[in-house]
Design brief:
11 strands; six-stranded parallel beta sheet; binds NADPH dihydro-nicotinamide-adenine-dinucleotide phosphate; three-stranded parallel beta sheet
Length: 293
């Protein structure tokens, strides 16, 4: 039987509608719609596309958006000063520094991310937010993993008690999704490039997450019949052809549910960024209330 197709478009719509409703509910006390600032350094074409899509999503939901496009030769101090200004800007609830940064800033990436006020860190990459996520506390969670979890919930796919296997241990996908699945009471295994017998481990998964960055990495023999397969990978194999990490055509004959690429997880990421911007606005408002008590 062919797997149920988990289409990103449908779930992204639901996440955005929910974010818009939450923003409108917050508006009377906030006095405005939430605001997102995106900082981009240089002219990387892929980053420019992502940034445009983020602006478009803000427009669609009626959020305020500010694009800070800095020249590629911007130095670390200038970028940090810009982040300080955005941290202090009351119109801005969420700040996102588009990655990757140009080579001369790459080494300072951690310092740059750490400069963002954790309550405005809509990417969820600040160590404070990572720590809170690991501790099971309320936090801003990286958008791609949070979007995948929301999709599972909206699709009615049970997580509790299930065996989840994640292939990939990056800070932006693999590690955070493992904590989110654990928080939902899955039994979680993380695989990476040094894992022995990876196909056998993958075959035990009820929920298999592929975040590797290699086309056709997950083949049909690595998938348990009926499993849910979430393909996070985005691999460009020709100028106009994107594929995921999963051998989609073969795996869809085995899996119970599967996300396509393109048209799957990628669409959830920006929708979740909107939800995180509302959550950031809420966190700051609650923080202000606490301070004035
Ligand atoms: P990273 O390159 O940071 O991490 C890749 C992970 O895959 C690493 O943990 C690595 O292991 C593991 N890996 C690599 N080769 C193998 C192998 N042969 N066997 C087992 N594990 C292996 O990538 P990201 O997590 O940032 O991204 C993963 C993919 O997801 C990419 O295609 C990226 O483009 C995509 N992506 C998609 C997003 C979306 O919105 N849909 C958002 C973010 C990413 P090790 O740690 O041992 O090196």
């Amino acid at each position: 039987m062919t797997a149920r197709l988990l289409e990103g478009k449908l779930f992204a719509r639901m996440i955005k509608d929910e974010a818009k409703q939450a923003a409108e509910a917050l508006k009377p006390s906030l006095g405005r719609m939430p605001g997102l600032a995106v900082v981009i350094v240089g002219e990387d074409p892929a980053s420019q596309v992502y940034v445009r899509n983020k602006e478009r999503a803000c427009e669609e939901l009626g959020f305020f958006s500010a694009l800070i496009a800095l020249p590629k030769e911007t130095c670390k101090e200038e970028l940090l000063a810009e982040i300080d200004r955005l941290n202090a800007n009351r119109r801005i609830d969420g700040i996102l520094v588009q990655l990757p940064l140009p080579r001369h800033l790459a080494e300072a990436e951690a310092e740059i991310i750490e400069r963002i006020d954790p309550r405005k860190d809509v990417d969820g990459f600040h160590p404070v937010n990572i720590g809170r996520l690991v501790a099971g506390e309320r936090s801003l969670v990286p958008c791609t993993p949070a979007g995948c979890m929301k999709m599972l919930a909206l699709a009615g796919i049970p997580v509790e008690g299930k065996r989840a296997v994640i292939i990939g241990r990056s800070n932006i996908v693999g590690k955070p999704i493992s904590h989110l699945l654990l928080a939902e009471n899955a039994t979680v295994t993380i695989c990476h490039s040094r894992t022995e017998n990876l196909p056998a481990i993958a075959r035990e998964a009820d929920i298999l997450v592929a975040a590797v960055g290699r086309p056709n990495f997950v083949t049909a023999d690595m998938v348990k019949p009926g499993a849910t397969v979430i393909d996070v990978g985005i691999n460009r194999i020709a100028p106009k052809k994107l594929v995921g990490d999963v051998d989609f055509e073969a795996v869809r004959e085995i899996a119970g549910a599967i996300t396509p690429v393109p048209g799957g997880v990628g669409l959830l990421t920006i929708a979740t960024l909107m939800a995180n911007t509302v959550e950031a606005a809420r966190l700051q408002m609650e923080g202000k209330r606490e301070r004035t008590k």
